[in-house]
Amino acid sequence: MSQITASMAGNVWKVLVQVGESVEEGQDVVILESMKMEIPIAAETSGIVKEVKTAEGDFVNEGDVLIELE
């Protein structure tokens, strides 16, 4: 199982994937908003989305798990 984590603190602006969806390495899966900038978070490995651990509007800290892949 692989985890996608937040690279910085910010608000979750958009979740781009759903449970069961296939993602490729390098694909943007979440967009964070911090200081009025949009920061895309990409998958580091390919896989199937097992769980989305955050929702749009949530605040996350650096290192928080956003998505789990299997």
UniProtKB/TrEMBL annotation:
PROSITE patterns: BIOTINYL_LIPOYL. Keywords: Biotin. Residues 1-70 form the Lipoyl-binding domain. InterPro entries: Biotin_Carboxyl_Carrier/Decarb, Biotin_lipoyl, Single_hybrid_motif. Gene3D superfamilies: 2.40.50.100. Pfam families: Biotin_lipoyl. PANTHER family: OXALOACETATE DECARBOXYLASE ALPHA CHAIN. NCBIfam families: PRK05889.1 (NF004547), PRK08225.1 (NF006079). This is Acetyl-CoA carboxylase biotin carboxyl carrier protein subunit. It comes from Collibacillus ludicampi.
